[in-house]
UniProtKB/TrEMBL annotation:
The keyword Transmembrane helix applies. The chain crosses the membrane at residues 776-794. Coiled coil: none annotated. This is Telomere length regulation protein TEL2 homolog. Its main location: cytoplasm. Gene3D superfamilies: Telomere length regulation protein 2, C-terminal domain. Residues 526-634 form the Telomere length regulation protein conserved domain. SUPFAM superfamilies: ARM repeat (SSF48371).
Length: 846
């Protein structure tokens, strides 16, 4: 019988190709329409051109033709499309005879034929007509039939179950999946600006998603009736769409409907599980990641994934390793769903425990903490806090000691970090874990700064509740109503209380303005610098100590006699003064006094402070104070000195001058002239202010005293102070201070040598393990490029500059910290600009 059907198909195709008039074309199209009718439609009257095939049953003739020869018919008709051929069809017979063939025949063959024709035709009539047929094919809902044909299971007469379209399934599915997933891109490449809205991704993918939903509904009905159905093709299509970048458009349509369906019966859960877990391995991550980000509640995840994480090694590696340790995401919902999925079932609980312990190990590893990016570290902290919220009583009893043992090294590493955000996250994780694991034992308490990030992390300790199946629109409406009610309650007046309480209240009395009140001290402020020093040494008398500290800056800036001789001793007193008396604004007053002393006696104070920087019996705060005072004093010394005395003289003489002129009344000519001058706009009137007077840079002579002693013993590791070891916090601040001192010494004779020495100093610190130190080195390098002349960099330091350029390029490419990469990119751009400008100047001179 297949031979007879093949002969009929060949006769129809040859008849269409050789037909020259309208009557013959319509005759052969009618024959083709008869053979492409849906299965089960019977027509006793065969077309006259097919009369010789009356011995073949119509149903078998139609079925065999559609399965084996319909694609060839579609290709033939699309090849015949031309202006001359279309003109032979009267009126609107093109849609009635040609369009209906693509709508009633095999959807897969029609789609593939239309797609191949669009790709092969160039701009012209054929492309226009083929595009119109493809647009009609999509808008009439034929995509749904294409999907369902691949999912159907047919039962042969002998009772044996066989899959429809068994021959060539693998090749057909690959071609269909590729066509359906890449159709928007292909049409955009072929049509360009003339592309139809039907083929735009934002319109096409949701339409395809609705077709997938309808296909899943029909599959659900078949499975409910205990009939066979295959969802492998749908899984392949979903995986390919997500892999090609359409996951957002696809899952935004699928997930809300499927979340509603999986709560109805178990069959829907099986359908969703088969679709999600049946995607190819290459597309598994592209499907699961956006799916976890969109599922509203973590207890619904197993309705999509089931227990596939147990027996599917690919899914287990993805969920338990790759998504937790190799990637990071900004969506907290993904982490909540992932960890909640592992912890919400006793069959998967052991995977949750293993992942929790591994998270603690990675989080507490000192080497990992130094090389991980800020975003990855935040992601790890979020994962740990969510894991802590899922700890049960069994884990508290059996894993308490193990978890605390894994926690303690991480706490030490985080507390030693130079990044404030990293320290805060580490303290919060340690505090929450100890409080949860051992609520009755000793708790770790830290003073954690309250930031929006810390508040968001604390909220993760609350497990998400069931959001229900309400629509998004209803939730938004309820939110608006709640906001309006709250605003109305705020506007409503409070109910009156007890009359006696109102009579005793003082709320109706106007308060006194006490903003300008000052504290009256029983001790007078010292007027001499030595009296001030004695008051600072006597910290037991609180009032005298407070008065001396408050007057110290003003006394130093008044430049009293003998300040130079006692400057080192006064610096020692201020440096060792501690806040034991509860003096308000103590740190600020002490800091300003030390800066004022370093400005007026720079050489003596700098020698003392730089010598004490590496001495023993100083804490980290005091060493940081030394660096801050030196950098602030360098900035102030590099600025021009304010002429305070001259300003006071002018202001004193001004009133007498005005008074002398006021005794003589102005004449009418002077009044008129003054009004004319005030309303006349003149250009090129000349300088209105005196020229600035150049002054010597006060910092130039003492820059070396601030700079070189700070680098004396940086590589000398001591038990009490190790810059290259545990005291990286001081090291990165030291590099910043040296860079600030160099920047303030710009245009001085010592700047070149200082820049060269600083470049050598930072060379060995470029690969430091602490990210803050690496950032400081990049900033210092940029300041060196700004301060040193370009010709000096490219002549005397040519080799160093080229190595620096290669290093900056490496930082931009390989550094894990985003801020460090950004700073390196800025420094690299500055260096390239200097090189280009210097080369241009050399060419101009030649």
């Amino acid at each position: 019988m297949e031979t007879r059907v093949r002969a009929a198909a060949r006769e129809i195709i040859n008849g269409l190709r050789n037909a020259e008039d309208t009557q013959n074309i319509i005759k052969w199209l009618e024959a083709a329409k008869f053979l492409t009718r849906k299965h089960g439609q019977k027509d006793e009257n065969l077309p006259s051109v097919l009369g010789q095939y009356s011995d073949v049953p119509s149903l078998q003739l139609q079925t065999t033709f559609q399965q084996q020869h319909f694609g060839k018919l579609c290709t033939t008709i699309l090849d015949l499309l031309s202006v001359e051929w279309i003109q032979k069809l009267p009126g609107n017979l093109f849609s009635a005879h040609v369009g209906v063939l693509f709508l009633e025949g095999s959807g897969a063959d029609a789609l593939l034929a239309l797609d191949h024709a669009v790709q092969s035709h160039r701009q012209g009539f054929k492309l226009h007509k083929t595009t119109a047929l493809l647009e009609l094919f999509i808008t009439k809902g034929r995509l749904q039939q294409v999907l369902w044909d691949q999912c159907q299971m047919s039962r042969s007469d002998g009772g044996q179950c066989c899959q429809a379209l068994m021959a060539g399934h693998t090749g057909l599915w690959e071609e269909l999946v590729l066509t359906l997933s890449s159709l928007p891109t292909r049409m955009a490449n072929c049509l360009g600006r003339e592309n139809s809205d039907v083929f735009l991704p934002q319109n096409y993918v949701p339409r395809l998603a609705r077709s997938i939903l309808e296909c899943l509904r029909r599959a659900h009905d078949l499975l409910t009736d205990s009939k066979d159905c295959s969802l492998e093709f749908v899984s392949r299509l979903v995986g390919k769409l997500c892999f090609t970048g359409y996951s957002d458009l696809l899952l935004d349509v699928l997930v809300p409907v499927l979340c509603t369906s999986v709560t109805k019966d178990y069959v829907w859960c099986r359908v969703c599980e088969r679709v999600v877990t049946g995607v190819p391995s290459l597309s598994m991550e592209s499907v699961i990641v956006p799916l976890l980000s969109r599922i509203p509640w973590y207890k619904w995840v197993d309705k999509f994934l089931g227990d596939c994480v147990i027996h599917n090694q690919k899914v287990r590696f993805l969920l338990c390793t790759k998504l937790l340790f190799h990637r990071y995401f900004s969506q907290v919902a993904l982490l909540q769903n992932l960890i909640g999925y592992l912890a919400s079932s006793h069959t998967r609980r052991h995977l949750y425990t293993e992942a929790f312990c591994k998270l603690l190990q990675v989080w507490g590893d000192a080497s990992s903490l130094r090389h991980v990016s800020a975003e990855q570290h935040l992601f790890l902290c979020q994962a740990l806090i969510i894991s802590i919220s899922h700890i049960g009583e069994q884990e508290k009893q059996h894993w308490k000691d193990e978890l605390i043992k894994l926690l303690l090294p991480g706490v030490q590493s985080h507390l030693g970090s130079t990044d404030v955000a990293v320290r805060s996250r580490g303290m919060l994780v340690a505090q929450l874990l100890t409080k949860t694991v051992d609520p009755t034992g000793h708790k770790i308490e830290f003073e954690i700064p309250r930031t929006p990030e810390i508040e968001d992390l604390e909220k993760l300790m609350v497990l998400p509740s069931d959001p229900g199946l309400e629509t998004v629109h209803q939730a938004v409406a309820d939110l608006k109503v709640t906001d309006e009610q709250e605003s109305l309650e705020k506007e409503m007046p409070q109910e009156p209380g007890n009359d006696a309480e109102e009579l005793d209240s003082d709320d109706d009395l106007a308060p006194f303005d006490m903003s300008f009140d000052k504290k009256v001290s029983k001790v007078k402020a010292p007027k001499y610098i030595r009296d001030c020093m004695e008051g600072l040494l006597n910290s037991q008398e609180v009032d005298r100590f407070e008065a001396s500290l408050g007057a110290a800056e003003a006394l130093i800036r008044s430049k009293p006699d003998g300040i130079t001789e006692i400057s080192a001793e006064l610096s020692k007193i201020l440096l060792h003064t501690t806040e034991t008396c509860g003096v308000p604004d103590f740190l600020s007053q002490r800091y300003r006094s030390m800066v004022a002393l370093a400005v007026h006696c720079p050489k003596e104070v700098a020698q003392y402070l730089t010598l004490q920087f590496y001495e023993r019996n100083y804490n980290i705060r005091q060493r940081l104070d030394i660096l801050e005072v030196l950098s602030a004093a360098a900035q102030e010394l590099s600025q021009p000195e304010k002429p305070e005395a001259k300003t006071s003289d002018h202001s004193a003489k001004a009133p007498s001058k005005i008074q002398s002129h006021s005794t003589h009344p102005e004449t009418w000519r002077q009044v008129v002239q003054r009004r004319i001058d005030s309303k006349t706009r003149r250009f090129g009137k000349g300088r209105t202010q005196p020229e600035p007077v150049g002054t010597a840079n006060r910092f130039g002579d003492v820059a070396g005293e601030f700079f070189y002693p700070l680098m004396r013993f940086y590589d000398k590791g001591e038990r009490f102070f190790d810059l290259l070891g545990d005291d990286a916090m001081v090291l990165h601040r030291l590099i910043y201070t040296l860079a600030i001192i160099l920047h303030n010494a710009v245009n001085t004779t010592a700047a070149r040598q200082m820049g060269k020495v600083l470049l050598e100093f930072t060379w060995s610190l470029r690969m430091h393990r602490d990210v803050k130190v690496r950032q400081a080195v990049v900033v210092a390098t940029s300041i060196i490029l700004l301060v040193l002349p370009a010709h000096f960099l490219l002549t005397d330091l040519q080799v160093d500059v080229m190595e620096t350029k290669a290093w900056l390029e490496g930082v931009v490419e390989k550094e894990v910290n985003e801020e460090c990469k950004k700073l390196a990119a800025q420094g690299l751009a500055l260096l390239e600009t200097l090189i280009a400008k210097e080369m241009q100047n050399a060419v101009t001179e030649n």
